Amino acid sequence: MATDPSRPSGADDPHAPGAQASAQADAAARDAALTEAQMKELEERFDPEVRFRPLGPTLGVVAAALLFVLACYHYYTAGFGIPRAATHRGTHLAFTLALTFLAFAAWGRGEARRSSLLAPLGLPLIDWVLALAGAAAALYVPWIFDDLAFRVGNPLPIDVWMGTILIVVLLEATRRAMGWPLPVIALCFLAYAYFGRSMPGVLTHPGADWTGIVNHLYLTSQGIYGTALGVISTYVFHFVLFGVLATRIGLGQLFIDLASALAGRYAGGPAKVSVISSAMLGSISGSSIANTVTTGALTIPAMIRIGYPRHFAAAVEAASSTGGQITPPVMGAVAFLMIEYLGVPLTTILTAALVPAFMHFFGVLVQVHLEARRRGLRGLTKAELPDAWAVFRRDWLTTIPLILLVAVLLSGRTPYSAAFWGITSCIGVLIIQNVMRHPLREAAKRVAREVFDGFVLGAKFSLSVTAAAALVGVIIGVVTLTGVGFKIAYMVTSVAADWAGTVSTWLAVLPFEIMDTMTLTLLFTLIMTAFVCILMGCGIPTTANYLIMIAVAAPILSMLGVQPLVAHFFVFYYGVLADITPPVALAAYAAAGIANANAFKAGNTAFRLGMGKALVPFVFVFSPSLLLVTDGFTWGQFFLATGGAMLGIWALSAAFADWLFGPLYAVERALLGIAAILLVAPDLVATLIGLALIAPIAARQLLARGPASPA
Fold first, then answer.
1. What is d(CA 703, CA 692) in angstroms, rounded to the nearest whole number?
2. DSSP state of 281
3. CA 78, CA 250: separation in Å to the nearest integer?
4. CA 89 to each of CA 144, 167, 374, 646, 691: distance values in angstroms, whole numbers, following the listed order
5. Can you say whether the dihedral through the CA atoms of 267, 270, 273, 278 is positive or negative?
6. Which pLDDT band holds residue 316 (cuts at 50, 70, 90)?
7. Which residues cross the membrane (predicted)?
8. Contact 626/356 with Cβ under 8 angstroms?
9. Which residues, 6 or more positions from 143, have their beta carbon under 8 angstroms from its beta carbon?
10. What is residue 57's three-state secondary structure?
């Protein structure tokens, strides 16, 4: 049947308010809560970084002991002093490589095996060889450190052999822990370094023999033992450990309960609980998939129960959980990489991240609210909600570690010192909790077990990110050896300038100027950079993606006058966006697994819900004041950019949801989309035009709603 184009498009919507509430409630009633085993299985299916293989009893004890020793080493050095860089990084890498081949099977999850001649303690002989060879090659550089200055540029044959072994082992360790994409990229860069003379056009370079490549990647601080590995071993490990312990003492559950108490009663309550709890949980967890599974196990069934479609419920949780990686203070470990590469205090990074992170969650909240209004969805009843005061009175102790960690960070002390006190306070809270609940002897046993398990799990979670960071050191080393970053920058800016020139010719027919050629060049450069960041992020974790892109893309943006802090945030945000961008939207697929929804549909919806994260980077490139701490900051520019971005996100959300204060005409949706683009542009004239487009639409809907309409 044809639809009357004169009516608002939402008027014939089969999903109009209350239309499917009963059917959806019946379907949701059949959804059982996920067990811990099911949650673990989902996380392993979609996140190769936690796909640990089962080990036999003896080997399991050996692996746990080594992981505990690694965690204790980092806990001690965080509190009492880190040794010289080469020794610290080499020790961390040696433990990591050895444990990677114990924790990850060559293919899939593997299975526990009996001990035999070809598999001592149940571990294949090749894995023993790779583990020991990797550890030896990683420790070799610290061992010869006193003579290193005499070998750089003139390595001995054994230096080349050990470097070759380390590169090969790193490739295999990263493949096991993360899959093929990153090792393939590293191999392409190595091939580029070796076959430089055969490269076409501007990409050609003198090339280097294998000895020269190994010398640069292995014996200098420009490669494997560079900044990336240094940050992982000095900062990231400690915050991963803190996040694990903070979750074990109940801080994550406190966040979820408080979010339920504060937001659950409003329209579409469980979806708003998902957004707020993911924002809070993201402050201590840097993993999108872990966040999705942890909060989604509770919020997704609740969203389905009140009437949200399954794919939409999955998308809300995925979009919210990816926001954790941009939420201070941890920011998925990237904050600590930024302070090393940019040479600015951590407080600068955390301050700059505040408004963009808020924009992301604001965008998701607006969309779930409009969707709830369009569908007439209820909030949770008082009987379904926890009492906020009772929750806080019960679990307030769990907030102490986070408060202490933030306080130490803001005091100007080192991040690893803050992590040390955060971890120590987590242990203190564990002690208090168990002493209050159990007899002293049993409490001591429980605390010892919790600390041991937390240390082992934290060290386990760090294995994949360390292997990736060390391998990214290979890629960065090739970039510094060959200068390919500036060659790529030249090619991209040349293409962008050509496109800008063509578009400027088309726009010249207008009686006023929209953008000059330089602005268009920057715009097209940003679009290409964003596309590459998302493409790279489809198979590479956020941290590794960020490291590669700042080596390759940051020079591009710098050539066009973009401030370094702004450039780093831009590539970081678009790398994170890959977790909800099909075809490899892992966070969305994990959420779809919980919701029993179509994964691709959930991914597409999650990308739409995360549009704030996609729009805001363009805003802060053209108006850096949005980041608060950039050069040339003014409050006028800040309020213009912030207010315009919020209104633009709201307008675009309404266009997508087909609902502002009621259903929209098709032409109104189109006008809201145009208004959103104008509002997001940090320009006063564009903002005023955008407001002028929205005003009559809002006025029509408010007048049509009348005084009897529900609030």
1. 17
2. H
3. 24
4. 14, 15, 55, 43, 54
5. negative
6. very high
7. 55-76, 91-109, 121-143, 155-171, 178-195, 224-246, 349-370, 418-436, 457-482, 488-510, 517-537, 543-562, 569-591, 611-629, 638-661, 673-695
8. yes
9. none
10. helix
